[in-house]
Amino acid sequence: MTAMTLPALPEESFQRVLCVVAHPDDMEYGTSSAVARWTARGIEVGYLLLTRGEAGMPNPPEETARLRVAEQRAACAAVGVEHLTVLEHPDGVLVYGLDLRRDICHEIRRFKPDVVLGTAYDVETPYGFDQADHRAAGLATLDAIRDAGNQWVFPEEDHEPHDVRWYLVPGMPGSGATHGVDVTGEPLRRGVASLEAHGEYLAALPQHPAPADFIPQFAAMSGKAMGVEHAVLFRAYDLQAPPEFGTGDEG
Ligand SMILES: [Zn+2]
């Protein structure tokens, strides 16, 4: 079935995309190239970071938090993202629970996205065991999407309930991706620049490959799945599609 190529995401229907991740830099390992394409097309993109990434460097945590949030701001600027919210859940020991769901639900109701982009919540991934914060963030994001649409869940919120149309999770070639975003050219360049914006953080990881080397390599692998030079892949779920097993009578 190698001749099959993945379809493009229906991004012409996207107006607002909220990206929810655990840490500064989580968006910059490929996904931000898709964000660069979207913002260039006038789509509003907001980032919600659940932690400040203070456990990610040998420096004292408060110093690291300030540095990493500043680097994230620069990373956002590289791909045209103006809405950055950074919460102060504890890095490294992020806990799935109602606190996390409430905070994500609050941001969904405030930002009113038609697309929420979260992280996967699988234990095993094609690149090894995933980090605990990523799993907690991913599962809480999935649940918060449903919470946001229910007026009886977190009713103390000062915003109206909000229904999200699309739920996206980054995908890998050959690992459940359903759609792709063509990032050939300028979006890919800006995506590379967004990871380079985490300069001091990356400098503290001496074995880390240069963003300008590995981001295009990975995007080229993903591009093959879509039949373009460079791509970012996603698993996409239309949350308002009728259930496949039903008659389609219920919304
Ligand atoms: Zn992370």
Largest sheet: 7 strands, mixed
Biggest sheet, spatial arrangement of strands: 3-2-1-4-7-9-8
Q: From the alpha-carbon coordinates, what is the Rg to the nearest angstrom?
A: 18 Å
Name the CATH superfamily assignment.
LmbE-like
Number of helices: 7
Q: In the residues, how many domains can be counted?
A: 1
Shape: globular
Order of helices and strands: EHEHEHEEEHEEHHHE
* Low-confidence segments: none
Structural class comes to: alpha/beta
Percent range of helical residues: 25-40%
Distance between the termini: 34 Å
Mean pLDDT: 94
Beta-strand content estimate: 15-25%
Would you tell me which CATH topology applies?
Rossmann fold
Q: Identify the CATH class.
A: Alpha Beta
Which cofactors or ions or other ligands sit in this model? Answer: zinc ion
Count of individual beta strands: 9
Structure, described:
With 251 residues, the protein is α/β, with parallel strands linked by helices. The chain has one domain: LmbE-like (Rossmann fold, 3-Layer(aba) Sandwich). It is built from 7 helices and 9 strands, in the order E-H-E-H-E-H-E-E-E-H-E-E-H-H-H-E. The strands form 2 sheets. It has a 7-stranded mixed sheet, sandwiched between helices. Helix 2 links the parallel strand 2 and strand 3. The longest helix has 18 residues. The mean pLDDT is 94. Zinc ion binds next to loops.
